Amino acid sequence: STVMSLVTRLWSAVHTWKVKDGGEWRRMSELLEPPAGREQLHDLFGRLLSTLVAYFAVPRYMRLRHVMRLYGAAEDQARRHALANEFKLLVDGSLSQLQALVQELKTRGLPGGEAHRLDSYISQIGIAWEQLTVIKEYRTPQVFRAFSRVYVLIMPVLYGPYYASIVEEAEKSGDDPDRALLFAILFACAVQLASAGLVNLMIALEDPFAQKTRFAGNFDRIRVSEIAEATRRHLLLVEQQAPDGW
Fold first, then answer.
1. How far apart are CA 136 and CA 84, in angstroms?
2. How far is it, in rounded angstroms, from Cα 228 to Cα 170?
3. pLDDT tens figures, 4-63
């Protein structure tokens, strides 16, 4: 949200801030060579949004099968890693071009104070972008993930004597053994479901951005493509309303 908000602020500034040019106040977007400047501006922001979506859509790597190098997993991991790095470089390139845009506007009359503010917007976009890449690429240690999977499988065996003791204690206290058995079964199922759900949640949060290949995990993922599309429509609305003033 920080990245998209700052992109919107930067776009809005280019289309609404006015600069004195030859004794006449003009919007910054009008300082660019029309219509080529307008098309280049659209291409730059459109490329930034599209590469952001493409980067976050790359399937996660460093999974267990990648580490174990099973069934061509090494090649699959290398391909996914190369895709992520390529899109990351494209995003960084777009941010560099935004900085070049600010410098170009300075040569066309943009005061230093306003240029510094636009540069600060781009710097904040870069910082937020790096934080998102850490969330995208961070992986829980393999040992912890493997332990959690194994623990869910062996937990019913480890807790079995406790569940049996519930029924035994009920018989000793004179309670209905059938009711105690039903309670023990329901309690065992509830504990198992809760543990399996937490493990699945941990795996789903390994990459909250990517489109999952299976049904599980799709409810809570961050829908970057929808956010980017909403941002794109917002940018077009800002551009349409900019000539009207306030």
1. 10
2. 59
3. 999 999 999 988 888 887 778 888 888 787 777 788 889 999 999 999 999 988 887 766
